[in-house]
Amino acid sequence: MHTYHFDPPAGAPLPGAGEEVRLDAEESHHLLHVMRARPGDPVRLVDGRAGVVLAEYAGADAGRARVLVRASHRESSELARPRLVLACGVAKGKRFEAMLEQAVELGAHEIVPLQTARGEVWPGEGRRDRWQTLLRGAGKQSGRSWTPELAAPLSPAALLADRPGALFFTGAARDRARDWRDDGDGRCGPAALLASASAGAADLRAGSELVWCVGPEGGWDDAELALLAAAGRTLRLGPHRLRTGTAALAGLALLAVVREMVVEAGPVPGV
Question: pTM of the entire structure?
Fold first, then answer.
């Protein structure tokens, strides 16, 4: 069953069984002319905010497809806390765009482009519109009911100040002179983090967001690195230096697993 996007009126509930939904021109074209839908064909709609509508193709008027709703619901797994956030320095060329699409597949709820001392110049609203389109397309392709929000660009300091209750993680290269394990100085490896999540660590369960902070291709400057290290946990992903896109996806994949474990454990009572 293919997934299509629809935009319900702001604040409106999801359509219920027996109601009709008209798709926009782009989605109608795909359903009618690419998929060559026939009446009765099953259709899955998502609204980008965890809403899912199961329907069937009912016909078309003036090139706009109509679908008849059979059932609808909101996916609790997408709405559960903590949310997964990727805060990343902007990379050059197509690398950042490819990373955005893969971040959707890995479960990011929000993406924050970071303005850093050594980062790329912010490319402007035209590029931002393109990124938003890529996020929506990647959501449909992966079957997600949630389209990640694309935040306004922030400095690392503004990011930290803007998110009370969030847990921040930033990467650090392995020190070859030390063991690959949690060494008590705020740094940890994947095994230690997963063990903490498995044990139902209260700090992870109480966090409203897991924010993975990745520097630009030029790296963090000393002030940014000190600020991030003081605000959260430094996570070591391996013995080698990683490119921005590689670090973003590797850390996001790890934190997606941690989030799933935390969601299954449930919130800390009273929090």
Answer: 0.91
